[in-house]
Amino acid sequence: MSSTDLRPVMAVPRHRILLGVLQLATSAGLVIDAVVHLRVAADYEPVQGILIGEGTLFRAQAVVALVLAVLLLVWPRRWVWVLAALTAASAAGAVILYTYVDLGAIAGLPHMYEPTWLPPGKLVSAVAEATTAVLAVAGFVVTWRMARNRDRRPTL
Fold this sequence. Notes:
This protein is an all-alpha fold. It has helices at 3-10, 14-40, 54-74, 78-100, 122-152. The longest helix has 31 residues, at 122-152. The radius of gyration is 20 Å and the shape is elongated.
C-alpha cells in the first residue's frame, strides 16, 4: 500500500479543522474577557446596586466566561456555543451601552455609566467580547451543519 492510498483515511475534514480553530479562538476570547473582568473587579467594588455590586457582577461574568471556555474545548455542543455567544454578546453590548448611555441603576443593577474607553482593559475586553460573540455564532453554525449532515447520511 502506498502513501497515497493512506491519504484519504488520514485526512481530517476541513469542517473539523474549522471547528477546532473556532473552539480555540472562541475560548481564547472568553479567557481574555474573564481575565480583564477579574483584574478590574476590585476597582468597581464600591459601585453597588440593590441586588449586586459591579465588582461581584464582573466576577460572575468572569466565572461564566471561564466555564464556557473550558466547555467549548472539552465538550463543544450546540447549546455551549449558544451560551458562549450570549455571554460574549451581552458583555459587549453592556460595555458599549454603558459607555454611551446613562441608564442609571436599573433592575437592581448598579449605576454602571462610564463615558470613556480609558479604564485599563475596557477596550480590549469589548473587542474580545464582540469578536468572541461572532466566533461563537460561527461555531454554532458549523456544529449545527455537521449534525445536520450526519443525520442525512444514509445508513447501511
